[in-house]
Design goal:
Blueprint (H helix, E strand, L loop, with lengths): L2 H16 L18 H13 L2 H20 L7 H10 L3 H8 L8 H30 L14 E7 L3 H14 L3 E5 L2 E6 L2 H26 L1 E8 L3 E3 L7 E4 L11 E12 L9 E12 L6 E6 L4 E3 L2 E17 L5 E6 L3 E2 L6 E7 L12 E9 L20 E10 L16 E4 L9 E4 L4 E4 L4 E19 L3 H20 L3 E9 L5 E9 L5 H16 L24
Antiparallel strand pairs: 1-22, 2-3, 3-21, 4-6, 4-20, 5-7, 7-8, 8-9, 10-11, 11-12, 11-20, 13-14, 14-15, 15-16, 16-17, 16-18, 19-20, 21-22
Membrane topology: Multi-pass membrane protein
Keywords: Cytochrome c-type biogenesis, Membrane, Transmembrane, Transmembrane helix
Protein name: Cytochrome c biogenesis protein ResB
Length: 565
């Protein structure tokens, strides 16, 4: 090998040492796995899995895999919508079942991507963190032999002593928050370590997000409860109207609290094109934490939930609950309660049922059960020609009632409280043999035939509020991880890690030659600009000396725009 080749190799090695460890990214090794054996294959697979390229690919796959979970009905979110989808797409549904698209987030393929991404990030972060700690404990590498080969370079001659120049350079660089030290005939400095800190914080934040997402899915709970004014709720599984939870959730994880709904108030636009549009929904509660907690008043509004520990109580719906009284043929009250009815439209046109199961006897003294279908409008208008509410507030309430008697079928198993099973029921008939029905205003009654009793629409109409009680234990960690990821990514993108070297040696003519060079992790205009700024400040402390044969007293600093040709 020629001397020239040897010199070039030495220079390349020198420059490589100067630019080493500007990043904590591991070196890519593309060694072929052929002939490695089992250990070699495992090592090769681990290196591929923990590479940044594979981590980004897994993150992309995870994002793509989450798309079906947003577009296709999920069993854990709404099982009824899944059944409707199966009925409407009998050919496509079995394919979705095989692919696990009805339960994406708990499917095998999504879990595999999730776990591989988690392992990849952990395997990537640990060595990078260890390497970065080593860089912090060490010092910036010494100056290369030929600073002219670096991207940003400047030089000048000065009559100041080399030691004085190096001391001034060291003080200047430390003042500019560089980590600097004297290394032989030069000063080595480095800045921008927060770039790697941001990079590591970003990766750690991704792990926090993954853990928070997993814990949120495994330990979450989500239930709904309809509460009528004057009634209350206790956070226990039997009390919920509907409840679903993660696979590792247990009833002991429920936050202990209770509340009473004292009053519900809603206001609506009274005129204009937005007439009837809700303006405010407010539920006034008194709640207590734990079994013996002190009661406290609060108001829950839309998007302003009540927060108790890890639980949040959201106000999600509202409607009306007319007070209904049912009497038997002897005038005995066998039923009296506020009956919540389900809204059908934006003006709270509602329907529901009343079921009388106990203590009722018909006109012959026989035990029997009664069922009433009800249709309610808070604001009735005869001019509309329809039994539909014209406004959501209680301006002119009207209740339509149909009556049935027989066996409600409640002994056969659980029933929907808002539906009436007429399989073993008979309709009451009026004098003309038609279905007995009547429109009732507050205070009106419908008398049942043959001494069967009566049903009364009382003047008191209560309101009900629907609450959603959610527990997501990983919510705070997820928010913290997301914020940390944003700040870490911003730091890794906008902070430039760079190195500066200042060499001062005495020339053959006894005049000190000052050389300054800079190197960044990537090509950036900030490195030459910063080097020019530093050179100008150092030049003020070590002014230029005239070149040989030049009568001028000073020699200007060479602009730091690039390497010397």
């Amino acid at each position: 090998m020629s001397k020239t080749d040897t010199g070039n190799s030495a220079e390349q090695e020198d420059l490589g040492a100067a630019g080493s460890q500007l990043s904590t990214a591991p070196r890519e090794e593309q060694a072929a796995p052929a002939g490695f054996g089992v250990v070699g294959w495992v090592r090769w697979f681990w290196r591929q899995l923990t590479s940044m390229r594979v981590a980004l690919l897994l993150l992309l796959l995870l994002s793509l895999g989450a798309i079906p979970g947003s577009l296709i009905p999920q069993t854990g979110a709404d099982a009824s919508k899944v059944e409707d989808f199966r009925a409407a797409h009998r050919t496509l549904a079995p394919v979705y079942d095989e692919l696990g698209l009805f339960h994406v987030y708990s499917s095998v393929w999504f879990s595999a991507i999730y776990i591989l991404l988690f392992v990849s990030l952990v395997g990537c972060i640990i060595p990078r963190t260890w390497q970065f700690v080593g860089q912090l404990r060490g010092r910036p590498p010494g100056a290369p032999r030929r600073l002219t080969r670096l991207p940003a370079y400047t030089t000048w001659r000065t009559e100041a002593d080399p030691e004085q120049v190096r001391e001034a350079a060291l003080a200047l660089l430390k003042k500019r928050r560089f980590r600097a030290h004297a290394a032989g005939d030069a000063v080595a400095a480095e800045k921008g370590y927060l770039r790697e800190v941001g990079n590591l914080v970003f990766h750690v934040a991704l792990i926090v997000l993954l853990v928070a997402f997993a814990s949120g899915q495994l330990y979450k709970s989500d239930g709904t409860k309809l509460v009528v004014e004057g009634d209350g709720f206790s956070n226990a599984l039997p009390i919920y109207d509907d409840f679903k939870s993660g696979s590792l959730f247990s009833s002991d994880d429920l936050v202990p609290f209770s509340f009473d709904l004292k009053d519900f108030r809603a206001t609506y636009e009274t005129s204009g094109p937005n007439r009837g549009t809700p303006r405010t929904f407010e539920a006034r509660l008194r709640y207590s934490e734990g079994a013996y907690g002190k009661e406290r008043p609060t108001t829950v509004k839309v998007n302003e939930p009540l927060k108790i520990g890890d639980a949040k109580v959201y106000l999600v719906s509202h409607g009306y609950a007319p007070v209904i009284t049912v009497r038997d043929g002897k005038g005995k009250v066998v039923y009296r309660d506020a009956v919540p009815l389900l809204p059908l439209d934006g003006n709270v046109t509602s329907n529901g049922v009343v079921k009388v199961m106990d203590d009722y006897r018909n006109g012959k003294g026989e035990k029997e059960q009664l069922g009433f279908q009800t249709f309610f409008v808070p604001t009735f208008s005869a001019r509309s020609g329809t039994m539909l509410s014209q406004y959501p507030a209680l301006l002119n309430p009207l209740l339509a009632v149909n009556a049935y008697h027989g066996d409600l079928g409640v002994d056969a198993g659980p029933q929907n409280v808002y539906q009436l099973d007429k399989t073993h029921m008979k309709a009451f008939k009026d004098a003309k043999g038609q279905l007995l029905k009547k429109l009732l205003q507050p205070g009106d009654s419908l008398k049942l035939p043959n001494g069967a009793g009566s049903i009364t629409f009382e003047k008191d109409v209560k309101e009900w509020a629907g609450f959603e009680i959610v527990q997501e234990p990983g919510g705070g960690w997820a928010l913290g991880g997301a914020l940390a990821a944003i700040f870490g990514l911003a730091a890794s993108l906008f902070i430039q890690r760079r190195r500066v070297w200042v060499r001062a040696v005495r020339g053959a003519d006894g005049v000190t030659v000052v050389e300054m060079a800079g190197l960044g992790r990537s090509e950036s205009a900030k490195v030459p600009e910063e080097l020019g700024d530093l050179a100008g400040l150092l030049y003020d402390q070590a002014p230029g000396a005239p070149d040989p044969g030049d009568d001028s007293s000073e020699s200007p600093v060479v602009p730091a725009e690039g390497a010397e040709k």
